[in-house]
Amino acid sequence: MSLTVDGTIRHPGSEAAWEYSVLIEVHDERDEMVARRVVGVGALRPGEARKFTLRVEMLVPESSQLTAAS
Questions:
Q1: Phi/psi at 11 (nearest 5 deg)?
Q2: In a structure prediction context, what are the per-residue pLDDT tens digits for the chain, which is 70 residues long?
Q3: Which residues contact 58 (CB under 8 A, 6 or more apart)?
Q4: Would you tell me how many other CB atoms lie within 10 Å of the CB of residue 21?
Q5: Residue 12: exposed, middle, or buried by beta-carbon count in 10 A (0-12, 13-18, 19+)?
Q6: Element (H, E) at 43
Q7: In 3D, which of 39, 38, 46 has the Cα closest to residue 10?
Q8: Which of 11, 17, 30, 44 has the fewest CB atoms within 10 Å around its CB?
Q9: All residues at 6 or more sequence positions from 17 whose CB lies less than 8 Å from its CB, including other chains
């Protein structure tokens, strides 16, 4: 099971560049924050765009097999 979100931001006008940051927050089941990271900062000039993909992947650990000594 995984989660993927794609999105695009675009500077719509002709005014000065806009700054942006990519912020990731992870919350637990009680809505308490367990992690917060800024992973990217940049600027968009008029007419520029940026595409972002957020992907959360789940890894299922292999079940370990214990063997008894004979």
A1: -80, 115
A2: 689 999 999 998 888 999 999 999 999 999 999 999 999 899 999 999 999 999 999 888 876 666 555 4
A3: 1, 2
A4: 9
A5: exposed
A6: strand 33-44
A7: 46
A8: 30
A9: 11, 43, 44, 45, 46
Identity of the residue numbered 52: F
> Which pair of tokens denotes residue 21?
């940051």
State the DSSP code for 64: P
- Give the whole-angstrom CA distance, residue 51 versus residue 2: 20
Closest C-alpha among 17, 4, 11 to residue 50:
11
> Considering only CA atoms, which of 38, 44, 41, 37 is closest in space to residue 16?
44
Per this entry, what is the length of the chain?
70
Give the position of tokens 């794609």: 6
